[in-house]
Amino acid sequence: MDYPYPEKKVEVRKQTAQRPFLRARDTPPLAIALLYGFQQVMVCVSALLTVPIIMADSLCPGADIAKLRQVLISSTFVSSGISTIIQTLFGMRLALLQGTAFAYVPSVQGFMSLPENLCNATEHDHVDPSVYYAKLCILQGCLMASSLIPMFIGCTGLVGMLTKFIGPLTVSPLMLLLAFSQTDLMVTHISKHWVAIVQAVTLFATILYLADVKVPVPGIKDRKFHWYKVNIFGQYPYLIAICTSWLFCIVLTVFDLTPPGSAARVDKNISLQVIESASWLEVPYPGKFGAPQFNLGLFLLFCLSAMTSVFESVGDYHAAARVSEERPPPSHAINRGILAEGIGSLISGLLGPGVGMTTHTENIGVIGVTRVASRWTMVMAGLFLIVLGLLTKIGALLSTIPDPLVGGVLASSMAMVVGVAVSNLQTVDMALSRNMGVFGFSMMFGMIVPKYFTKFPVATGWSWANDILNVLLQMPMFVGALCACILDNTIGGATREQRGLRPRGEIYEGGIDECTYSYPKWVMNILNRIPGVQYIPCMPKEKKGTNRVSGEEIRL
């Protein structure tokens, strides 16, 4: 029978194939891993340089400012490299780069502003090294003591217990407020010179427009000359953007196209002094500046800074898992991650930077752009950092990266963090007014409350209480995440699935040795032979679930 209706042709559109994603367990070729690792170092190097420079200025070394900066930069790179390897292989086991935590800087500046530590020496005045080394020893001693707190929290499993109450409605506001809190820093760096526009245009062009363009690269195949098509722009966008804009700044400097003292110049007196005063090889070691000292007030401030880093890192772990296309981190992995950060802070106190270690968020954003989450790339980045710290001439040369370029890298990385935070809500039923209210109120609280207490600080009559409350209440991530966590766990009207949480007792699908967060099988066999190891909260263990996904028990 013929129907009078015309036949409609359905056009099938072919989906664009995405580049393959390197998971945390994947092992890329050595040369590729080195390139990805070097790219991660180039992204974080400016942030790693910022804190030791601030620390050197706070210690007030007078005419020795360039020398002290070089020493602190060297010890920072080595501490960061060692901490990164520990975190990546033994801690969370995701590609997480460890670096100096800004949360410690206000504590140091507050301590140095005390009358007994006040110093007005300029870069032309002589200050005896014993004076500023004594201050650095106090910082080291208090940091080593305060690092025991995250280590204790990680070993006892306190953080892992708290994370059972943390879902997407808590993590997403934390990540968004973390990114929004960096806007002032981005504007500060970008506004220093228009060269940041060159860097931003290059970066966004490689990420958004040229990501799928394959560039012919000469090589050898079967002992014959061969042209390989390589996705250079999509795999190394940050490296290309930083090198291009850095080269552009060198051209501006060589041909004197920008005035002296401009933020785009690479021949600043301070940068050149650091390069000239740096030795070719320098090994940081414990006790280099003297025996560690202790100060109760600074110790309490550092304890607060350590707790701030713990809360921030928990959000970073969830963000890294999301970007790496892994399941949410289990309790034992978060416990190990915090333990690894505590060990990193202890190493930092032993070697010299004087501030604790934490996870760098901008490097998490790089994973989402490059689609490379292999932990071995971050191991290479850690080795690169150690080499840069030992070969101090090279590390000092990297200090010539102009400040405006830092803002562009930070902006693009935070853009990826914002995207991940929004995508994290796809498991939440946002059609429920309850979930919309929790998310909206936590975001507004996270933006309003810190602004209020910045303008009207807490004044209780006890200086130690003022310091603690002001730091916490002026931190958008803490206020927003705390508000979201309380509301999400106290307001009814939604099931666990509607809140974006898996049903209780459900076990993720996969084999017993397929969990990214667990150690290799041979390591687990050794650990399981040790009596009582299964009771340690930071050790991977078998979890028996009532709602089995694949019909077998897997390690969570």
What this model shows, in words?
- The structure is a single chain.
- The protein is mostly helical.
- Among the domains are: 307 residues, no CATH class; 69 residues, no CATH class.
- 58% of the residues lie in helices and 4% in strands.
- The protein is built from 22 helices and six strands.
- The strands form three sheets. The protein has a two-stranded antiparallel sheet. Strands 2-3 form a two-stranded antiparallel ribbon.
- The longest helix is centred in the first third of the chain and has 30 residues.
- The chain is globular and about 65 Å long.
- The N and C termini lie far apart (60 Å).
Rg is 25 Å
Order of helices and strands: HHEHHHHHHHEEHHHHHEHHHHHHHEHE
How much β-strand is present in the residues?
under 5%
Count of helical stretches: 22
Distance between the termini: 60 Å
Mean pLDDT comes to 80
> What percent of the residues sit in helical stretches (DSSP H or I)?
55-70%
Main sheet overview = 2 strands, antiparallel
- Characterize the overall form: globular
Stretches where pLDDT is under 50 for at least 5 consecutive residues are 545-556
Structural class: mainly alpha
Count of DSSP strands: 6
Order of strands, main sheet, comes to: 1-4
